Amino acid sequence: MQKFFTTGLAILFISTLGLLAVQIFGIQSSQVSFSRQQNGTQTGAYVKVLEAGLGQTEVFNYQRMGFNKGFIRFSPDGRFLAAGSEAGEVLLYDTRGSLIWRNTVGLGKLSALEFTPDGRAVLVGDTSQQGCLFSLDVTDGKELWRQASVNELGVDIREKTFPGMVAIRTDSAGMIYAVAQRYIKHPDGRNQYVGRIYKYTHDGRKAGAFPSDQNLDCWVSWLGVDDDGGRVVFSTANFDMAKYTYDQNVYCLDGTLQTVLWSRYLDAIQPYPNVTMRTGLEISGNGGYVAGIASDGRCFLFDGEQGEELWRRSITQPQKIAGVYINSTGNFSQIVGEYAIFTTGNTYNRANWQLPTPVENPNSNSLFVFDLQGNLVNNYKIGGMIEQISTGKHQAALAGGRNVRSKDPSVHGLYIVAIPEARLVDYAATTGPCVAAAISADGRYAAGIEAPIQLDDGQIIGEYKLILLAKQNRQ
Fold first, then answer.
1. I want to staple 397 with a disulfide (CB 3.0 to 4.6 A). Which of 221, 232, 439, 467 is the partner?
2. Residues near 194 by Cβ (< 8 Å), separated by ≥ 6?
3. What is the tens place of the pLDDT at every residue in 240-263?
4. What is the CATH number of the domain that holds 148?
């Protein structure tokens, strides 16, 4: 009887969420069944020009929340592709697929990658005993300068709690902004966060820090900077109910990192004790809008000048089934022209994320496009975790990773989607999960990184490798 009761609840849950999604958003699944490949891709709009191994990496399974990573960026002029591996190696290719150089930096794992605005250097962050930001010359890969975060964040090698430069951004004047972070899980269960936001000149001189005289005591792993460097935004995440000095969810600083222009606290919703924003915020190039998405599935748009909340939308909502809450996580936010873009991830069991969920949230593993007035324009469901998103002028590249419930490898791959139509332009299947994605500013090139995965039967599929696509020249 209990089995039938639970099944009935699951069916009711699916029906209710589906109807709710259609009524509120007009959402209809755009997921496509893939059957054939042309020149290594689904539609033939792009052609595969490079597959290159990135060395060995640890192999994980579906039960692990964290997973392999990779970092890829196209240069501003679209001539080069930089790739960073978990082994600490940086590689530079031209967009014809030729390797220019490779360099191993630091003593730990890579945790961030970016080009300078003039394309003359590759900026690399690592998580190690020093927690460094490196600048590498594009011509030969030689180190130009480095800055460490260990003096502010500290290190405890015995506990393997290393500092790391986990996010890098630049402005049009060539100034560099970086987030450094260190996380400590104490034996008694307490969470401790140590962080700092830095500003550097193009030649590596420190030009500012926030806070100036102490560390952030909250989780910060992301930041956004407007084109002129006038505003810097970041969001926070805390995983317990301890008191924090920096207890707001959203912050906007002036470009010198000396003044908090505005901050906002967001009310938590059941069953979450607080609001977490791990992969936001983003600010528009002109500084007029700030977009963010919380892990609970609510997305927000703020006025960039005053911090007024312009609107919020719930693209996924926690639902209680047989006494347990399940929900699809909110992940990434982007502002592309006149549109705000948000993504959702896998469906998790709130009580224990390692346990399977009876159903999937219908809005999981999806991309949503809103106009700046808060109207849903389109959505696209890829069926696997959107591990990364990269946007160009009219397109987005999505890294299609694991679906931890269905465990279906056929959803793995690099997806190229038109914006704002949320229409599939092309798709390159990967055997293992695709864990990184990049697209050039003009949309001519796209890239992804595949990682291996261990299936439930012990079989390992996929490999750690880089994939480069180029748009077909059609007459």
1. 439
2. 153, 154, 163, 181, 182, 183, 184, 215, 216, 217
3. 777 889 999 999 999 999 999 999
4. 2.40.128.630
Give the residue among 328, 331, 420, 417 at the shortest CA–CA distance from 372. Answer: 420
Number of domains in the chain: 1
Instruction: Quote the Cα angle for 377-336-443, to 5°.
Output: 105
pLDDT in tens, 38-67: 568 999 999 999 999 998 888 998 887 778
The CA distance from 400 to 424, in Å, is 13
Contacts 24+ apart (CB under 8 A), 288-291: 289/335, 289/340, 289/372, 290/224, 290/233, 290/250, 290/252, 291/333, 291/334, 291/335, 291/340, 291/341, 291/342
| pTM score of the predicted model | 0.90
Question: Is 270 among the domain residues?
Answer: yes
Range of the domain at 172: 105-275
* Residues forming a β-bridge with 415: 398, 427
Peptide bond into 211 cis (omega under 30): yes
